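Batch manifest, entry 17 of 40.
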Amino acid sequence: MSEHPTSDALPEYAERVLDVAELIPPGRVMTYGDIAEWLGDGGPRQVGRVMALYGSAVPWWRVVRADGALLPGHELRALDHYREENTPLREAVRSAEGHVPRLDMRRARWDGGAGAGGDDGGGAHT
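Output type: C-alpha cells
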C-alpha cells in the first residue's frame, strides 16, 4: 500500500482510490468508473468525489471522464502533463471551446493489466 502524505486522515475508500490512481502508468488514463470497477466498490461519482477532495496527492490527471474531456478548470495543467507523458490526444474540433483537445480514450485507456510496471503499448502522442 502506498504512503500518502495525509494517509492517517484519509477514509479507507479514499486511500484505495488513490492507491489505484498511483498505479496508472505515465501516458495512460483510467476513468472514474474504471477505478470503481477495479475496486468492486462505489461508482464514478464516489471516485470523482475522492479525487476532488484528495487527488492532489496523486497523478490526478490520469483519472478522467469517460468521454475524454479534460477536467474543467484544469485543462491547461492537465494538458501539460499529457504532453510531457506522451498521452494520446485527439485534436480539438473547431466547435470545441478554446480548441482544447480531448484524450484519445481508445489508445490512452489503461485496464490495469500487464503494463503496470512499464510500457504496454500505450501508443504515441498525436
